[in-house]
Amino acid sequence: MATMTIVQAVKRALDEEMARDERVVVLGEDVGKRGGVFLATEGLYQKYGPDRVIDTPLSEAAIIGAAVGMAVHGLRPVAEIQFADYVFPGFDQLVSQAAKIRYRSGGQFQAPMVVRMPSGGGVKGGHHHSQSPETHFAHTAGLKVVVPSTPYDALGLLKTAIRDDDPVVFMEPKRLYRSIKEEVPDEEYTLPFGEAAIRRAGSDLTMITYGGPTVESLKAAEELEKVGVQAEVIDLRTLVPWDKETVLNSVAKTGRALVIAEAPRMASFASEVAATIAEELLDQLLAPPIRVTGFDTPYPYIPDRLYMPTVTRILNAAKKALEY
Amino acid sequence: MATMTIVQAVKRALDEEMARDERVVVLGEDVGKRGGVFLATEGLYQKYGPDRVIDTPLSEAAIIGAAVGMAVHGLRPVAEIQFADYVFPGFDQLVSQAAKIRYRSGGQFQAPMVVRMPSGGGVKGGHHHSQSPETHFAHTAGLKVVVPSTPYDALGLLKTAIRDDDPVVFMEPKRLYRSIKEEVPDEEYTLPFGEAAIRRAGSDLTMITYGGPTVESLKAAEELEKVGVQAEVIDLRTLVPWDKETVLNSVAKTGRALVIAEAPRMASFASEVAATIAEELLDQLLAPPIRVTGFDTPYPYIPDRLYMPTVTRILNAAKKALEY
Amino acid sequence: MFQPFTEEPIRLIDEKGNWIGDFELDLSEDALLTLYRNMVAGRLLDERYIVLLRTGKTSFVAPAAGHEAAQVGMAAAIRPGFDWVFPYYRDKTLLLSLGYPAEQLFAQMAGTVLDPNKGRQMPEHPGHKDLNVFTVASPIASHVVPAVGAALSMKFQGTGQVVLTTFGDGATSEGDWHAGLNFAGVQGAPIVFAAENNRYAISVDFSKQSASARIADKAHAYGMPGYVVDGMDVLASYYVMREAVSRAREGLGPALVELLVYRYGPHSSADDDSVYRPKEEVEAWKKKDPITRFERFLEKRKLWTPEFGEQVRDEERKKLEAAEEKALSAQAVPPEWMFDDVYAERPWHLEEQKRILLEEL
Amino acid sequence: MFQPFTEEPIRLIDEKGNWIGDFELDLSEDALLTLYRNMVAGRLLDERYIVLLRTGKTSFVAPAAGHEAAQVGMAAAIRPGFDWVFPYYRDKTLLLSLGYPAEQLFAQMAGTVLDPNKGRQMPEHPGHKDLNVFTVASPIASHVVPAVGAALSMKFQGTGQVVLTTFGDGATSEGDWHAGLNFAGVQGAPIVFAAENNRYAISVDFSKQSASARIADKAHAYGMPGYVVDGMDVLASYYVMREAVSRAREGLGPALVELLVYRYGPHSSADDDSVYRPKEEVEAWKKKDPITRFERFLEKRKLWTPEFGEQVRDEERKKLEAAEEKALSAQAVPPEWMFDDVYAERPWHLEEQKRILLEEL
Ligand SMILES: Cc1ncc(C[n+]2csc(CCOP(=O)(O)OP(=O)(O)O)c2C)c(N)n1
Ligand SMILES: Cc1ncc(C[n+]2csc(CCOP(=O)(O)OP(=O)(O)O)c2C)c(N)n1
Ligand SMILES: [Mg+2]
Ligand SMILES: [Mg+2]
Questions:
Q1: How far is A14 from A22, CA to CA, in rounded Å?
Q2: Confidence of residue B1 (pLDDT cuts 50, 70, 90)
């Protein structure tokens, strides 16, 4: 067992998969000699050379679009978008090409590729180094969307993503890159998509979250425990497909749901979860499903962390649900 | 009173606003001599000349991005994206520039511009002439989103959009372009954003919809009337900001809500409305809010209309809500 | 060796049908006649599509008459089924020449189960795995970047393959077009970019599309050669493409080839071209018809007579009629296929949604 | 009249400080000294930013040392407050030279209420309405298209204004960059595109960014002249920019100017440049320092002595210190400002969300 951070887990997953399967290539801005601006590809260029670790020109359309072509032709590209905020110049390649090539060709072609991107706030990055654009991907049929929140998950899920035959958007909560350390098995393992992790069991309230705010949710749950409230914390881990069963089972048990995410609220993935809970569990609800989300403003530089669901904000919402 | 179609209403709004305010300019692919592929700008080039009706090169980034610069410099550009499906190559200009310039400059600069686009299915256009990407816009703070479903509204709302000081995405349900005719006052008028229209009053069930499916919703309501069920049909007209008050008042009264939209369901604007209803009206609900939406597949060529909420599908959902 | 960046388009047959190349023609009579037959077949296919439209068997056509020489020349320059093609919607003659079965093209136009793409897209959007023909996507220029990616894969894996990607003049304005050519240039990818410059993007003429005199000039920006070719001349199209393809195959990197063509018809069946271009212009270009020009050439070599021309047309017409018959009598794509191929396996939410559809069928 | 597309960069002062232009210098002594002072001030500002970072007063710096001559030259070529500027994050010396108040620059770095942008963005993202300086956005090249739009507005309204937009070498690979230049070319927009080519986009050197020898060559694609300039030479930068700006102002259309510079520091305070470029390269470029080169030039004209240089540095340092003091002692931007300026007026959902925030403050 080695102790590692999320960024180290990502690097290990890439390294193991590149060693295992020579079709796996990495491409993006500064992924070569520089090893990526977060060092997630550090050492890979030296180990696998410039044909498998490709420094691209500064164009996200080139990165994602080329990945589509490589994948269609038989490689397993892992594209890095330097910050999730910069996916938009390549967004058409993602929605019009990657997401639709299997479908539009009647299954003749496929694009087994991963688009990795550091996402989320909390690093004093202002609007263009802090956004959480997962809703745009989740709303695009044909894409799978994965958001790990721990080193163990990052490793196992990234390996699954690379082996998956569909395009996977893999979002790495950058504020957790180095803040969480965890023991991870030395043996190789993968983790399935579509299975949430129950981070904490509880009977009074369910918190459904993913990515960065998993941390604040767990902290809030600890606070609640102090006042005798047992919160169950579910980390979705994959958004498409998401683990409805685990969520509904939990909410059926607790009767109270908070959906916690740092993306803006309006028409968000959090709204999807809340709407589904309401649609399928109305009679078991003791309180309305409450969304605790980022605000519907661009992500501000000042204040930085207050934009995202804070422990206090989660507790305020929990109070509402409990006192309903 | 003149009888007109939606596309005629759009043309009249553009013409009136261009005549009223010389800062108003139109730009897009084929908007000049050709008058637009749907003829929404027909005759404007001849009337206002090439400096106010600008045929652009084939680049949505150029269209939207140039509109931002024009707007910041003092014009009131109305950009046309030939089909909503083609907004994605210009998506970054919309989310990173148009939506954020007011905010990031602390209110120093503003981008009063409209991005018009024919959207939605039902024209045998397959995936790239049929999509309804409003969720992407609604999820982007800084954009306003308008989706008229009648000639009267198209005229009044487009004029408001042009006069508005914020960037407005104006989505025109292309399958209704010529299928609905309506009397429209000869005098000039505008319609406010954020006010829904109650298209049909009813006490048993609320259908909340916008754009194309307003037609199927009204048909379904007529069917329901035959079996003694009074459905209220609310046409949101603007999605950002949306008229929560009218929706909640109606659902509080009927206790049953269907949210009907043709965009794919996952993490959609329909989910936003359903989640909000659940969050704010839990105790008044006699049945869960049910979403009747497009499917989470790319928009297929075959079948075409079956992708969208059909009258039958709406009735099936109504039945579930009524029998709950 | 052709020169890049010439003032005048490269031409090998003059208007009267004379060979004006400064090298020896090295094509067999069979090869020449195949070029001819392919152009004729392409023209006929185009005409059939319009009939399909008139009779309500399809919903959309993108006329390609006028593009035949360029498309047939390109097709002959690559190895079908080995090299890859990333085409655009106006390439029916290219695809037919590559051996794309006509009945599958018709099936795509009509949305029957014989379409290997399962009727997922509107007409004029074919694609074929066995032929390495990437299924056409509507968003202009969006296929150019995947084309570069495939070429990079070929290069990194040393497969010896080459990519051909085509697009119209309008496509050159899209950001993705730039991103693709730039990346290909940097990496020396084995790819040929072929612009079918018919001077219009729907109604927008080239002067409003670009301020460079030639599309070929844009190659300067990407450190690759740019050739401008008379695309109404099938031999010029073929030879320049052949050279560009072999350069790429030999590892000398990408090239941009601009083929000057003209579309005789409107942009599409939804277009009225009379509002943006004069009839005389169309008529003038019809006089430069690529098929007639090549007939004159063949005639001079005693390879063509009017009777032979009629015979080829008849033979090709019959083949197409049989293909059309087969394609159109096949079953329409069933609605529930809608839920297949979104992902490799259908996730729970699509299972649920499929049930919703089945409920109402 | 400078020549576009030259092999060698345009240069007016040689390394020893000699004027090597083939025309008569028409700048007053005052004007020359202002160029000098602006370069010194820019260099000092850059140094202060790094101190701010070390002392935790800011969170990010994009070093600009090495870019001074190019930026000061550009600033002198336009009419501040009349023409518009669409800059990028490395343009502090450009902005300071245009008259952007230093305390507002510092306030932007620190997020205090003196920032006219209300602390909305990370450091190095200034913008100023009164100076017609479009607020910097992080997504590379995304400002280039709005810049073109503003230029079109000027053209259509006949205001006589010109737009200057700047960007790095990496920016030229983005699709939006292409879209912007192409549209400007077609419309003959009054805009000058200035590439500050420091040969690296973070770690990626220019050979991996583009296969064209020069960024200036890319102008061929857009039917506009492309000039390549020694950007360590403030007079070459100024004169070429001046010519490009007057061409644009006279209605002769856009130009692309490539200024060859070097950044002495890392890409940003988050970067370690030692992993991708050799120290010797940096040292070699430091020998070409633009300020020293101009000092030699001024010295030859008896406009400069080491003592005078020291005096200028002192004066500028004092001004900056006062500005910094003022900026940093201002109040931090209050959190609830977060809900302003999303729209012209705050809609109900933001009112609700503001209440949620206030509840927890
Ligand atoms: C991204 C995008 N924007 C707009 C369109 C609509 N559209 C379809 S074809 C076309 C013109 C294409 O012109 P060109 O590239 O010259 O090819 P041609 O049709 O002339 O062969 C346009 C604007 C589209 N398909 N995709
Ligand atoms: C669209 C986008 N992609 C990626 C980035 C991350 N990024 C910031 S600066 C930079 C390099 C820019 O290089 P260049 O244009 O040469 O300017 P320089 O920093 O050298 O002055 C990158 C990749 C970004 N800001 N925007
Ligand atoms: Mg064309
Ligand atoms: Mg650079």
A1: 11
A2: confident
Q: Give the model confidence (pLDDT) of D298-317 as tens digits.
A: 999 999 999 999 999 999 99
CA distances from D304 to D36, D169, D287 (A): 10, 33, 19
Beta strands per DSSP E along C149-225: 163-168, 191-197, 200-201, 204-205
Whether the Cβ atoms of residue C190 and residue C151 lie closer than 8 Å to each other: yes
Ligand nearest to the CA of A97: 1
Instruction: Give the end of a domain, one of B162, B184, B206.
Output: B184
Tell me which residue has its CA closest to atom 17 in ligand 2. D168
> Cα–Cα distance between B217 and B227 in angstroms, integer?
16
CB contact under 8 A, C186 and D208: yes
| Nearest one of C59, C58, C113, C68 to C90, comparing CA atoms | C68
Counted domains in chain B = 2
DSSP 3-state of B260 = strand
Do A134 and A10 lie in a common domain? yes
C-alpha of D241 from chain center = 13
The one-letter code for the residue type at B225 is E
Domain membership of residue B160 (yes or no) is: yes
Q: Are residues B101 and B219 in the same domain?
A: no
pTM for this model (two decimals): 0.98
Which residue positions in chain A have pLDDT lower than 50? none
Secondary structure of residue B106 in the 3-state scheme: coil
| Beta-bridge partner residues of A80 | A28, A116
Residue with tokens 């061929």: D220
Q: Is C276 among the residues known to form the active site?
A: yes
Domain that holds residue B284: 197-323
Q: How far is CA C33 from the centre of its chain?
A: 20
Spatial distance between the Cα atoms of C25 and C127, rounded to a whole number of angstroms: 33
Domains belonging to chain D, first-starting first, are: 29-330 (3.40.50.970), 335-361 (no CATH)
Q: Centre a 10 Å sphere on the Cβ of residue A186 and count the other Cβ atoms it contains.
A: 8
**Quick one: tokens of C38?**
């392919």
Whether residues B142 and B98 fall in one domain: yes
Cα–Cα dist B145/B115, whole Å: 10
Stretch D39-63: mean pLDDT:
97
Q: Which residues contact D20 (CB under 8 A, 6 or more apart)?
A: D11, D12, D13, D14
Taking the centre of ligand 4 as the mean of its atom positions, its distance from the CA of residue D126, in whole angstroms, is 19
CATH code of residue B143: 3.40.50.970
Q: How far is CA B13 from the centre of its chain?
A: 16
pLDDT digits (tens, 9 = 90+) for B159-175: 999 999 999 999 999 99
Q: Whose CA is nearest to atom 21 of ligand 2?
A: D168
d(Cα B95, Cα B76) in Å, to the nearest integer? 18
Do A178 and A206 sit in the same domain of this protein? Answer: no
DSSP state, B82?
S
Q: What is the DSSP letter of C138?
A: S
CA gyration radius, chain B: 19
Task: Return the structure tokens found at C2.
Answer: 């052709």
| Interacting residues of C311 by C-beta distance below 8 A, sequence separation 6+ | none
Identity at C278, one-letter amino acid code: P
At residue A305's C-alpha, the angle toward residues A256 and D271, to 5°, is 135
| Complex ipTM > 0.95 | yes
Q: Which of D5, D144, D177, D178 to mutate to test the interface with C (most CBs of C within 10 A)?
A: D178
List the CATH number of the domain containing B210.
3.40.50.920
Cβ contact A116:A148 at 8 Å: no
Final residue in a domain of this structure, among B184, B215, B245: B184
Residue of A nearest to D136 (CA): A128
Question: For residue B76, which phi and psi values (nearest 5 degrees)?
Answer: -125, 75
Packing angle of the helix pair B6-20, B151-163 (nearest 10 deg): 30
Confidence of residue B62 (pLDDT cuts 50, 70, 90): very high
How confident is the model over D271-285, as pLDDT tens digits? 999 999 999 999 999
Q: What is the rounded average pLDDT for all residues in chain C?
A: 98
